Amino acid sequence: RKEVEQDPGPFNVPEGATVAFNCTYSNSASQSFFWYRQDCRKEPKLLMSVYSSGNEDGRFTAQLNRASQYISLLIRDSKLSDSATYLCVVNKGEGNRDDKIIFGKGTRLHILP
Amino acid sequence: GAGVSQSPSNKVTEKGKDVELRCDPISGHTALYWYRQSLGQGLEFLIYFQGNSAPDKSGLPSDRFSAERTGGSVSTLTIQRTQQEDSAVYLCASSLGPSGHLAGNPYNEQFFGPGTRLTVL
């Protein structure tokens, strides 16, 4: 199993729709989870951290399912500006201060007018 | 405030030449990461620095690649005898502390520079 795995997409979704995608991770010891967003030919930027209890930021909701080892991102009322690649990010889970984070390959999302 | 900066923004070189890429992290950030990204592909981890030391060099693809960091600040990534397959965007990121454990820790967020687009002819 890959350390971090995402459906590459693309997800083609009409404007205003709700879209969700998941990301699975292999190490049950992982503790830190994030979603980053990368626009075409731009650098990645943090979208939101993912907390154990789940968290919401406006139209975006992130969930963590430890039992099944996946995190999810839900986007409600999608906008054209949401078109981007969404990167799932998980810490390696080595339990020391030099533990690093692993980026998934990303899920491409296209919002259609 | 100043973010992560990288130079040059674009580099075109001939196969076999050496190149040096520079990253200036955000002031005070102790952790620094190098990644590369080929067109339409995901991020490929290269190396991670904590201060001046590199606990993880596992991503360097060959011994033609090396990196150093001095004064806990600026880092340079050097590629010797460049090959065409080295063509990619090289991204640098920094964070306040190690971007590993401690869920939700604000130290975890990585801030990326704009990247250096390397083309090897």
What does this structure look like?
The complex is a heterodimer of chains A (113) and B (121). By secondary structure, chain A is an all-beta fold. Chain A has no helices and 11 strands. The model of chain A has no long low-confidence stretch (mean pLDDT 91). Chain B has 121 residues and is mainly beta. Chain B is built from no helices and 11 strands. In chain B, the strands form 2 sheets. In chain B, strands 2, 4, 5, 6, 9, 10 and 11 form a 7-stranded mixed β-sheet that branches. In chain B, strand 5 (44-50) and strand 6 (53-56) form a beta hairpin. Chain B is globular and about 35 Å long. The mean pLDDT of chain B is 89. Chains A and B meet through strand 5 and strand 10 of A and strand 5 of B.
Structure described in brief:
The complex is a heterodimer of chains A (113) and B (121). By secondary structure, chain A is mainly beta.
Strand content of chain B: over 45%
From the spread of the alpha carbons, the general shape of chain A counts as: globular
How would you spell out the order of helices and strands of chain B? EEEEEEEEEEE
Give the number of DSSP strands of chain B: 11
SS content category of chain A: mainly beta
Structural class of chain B: mainly beta
Mean pLDDT of chain A: 91
DSSP helix fraction of chain B? under 10%
- Greatest contact between two chains: A-B, 29 and 27 residues
Through-space gap between termini of chain A:
37 Å
Compute the CA-based radius of gyration of chain B. Answer: 14 Å
Number of distinct helices of chain A: 0
Average pLDDT metric of chain B:
89
Please, what is the oligomeric state?
A: heterodimer
Radius of gyration based on Cα positions of chain A: 14 Å
What is the H/E string of chain A?
A: EEEEEEEEEEE
Shape of chain B: globular
> Low-confidence parts of chain B, pLDDT < 50 over ≥5 residues?
none
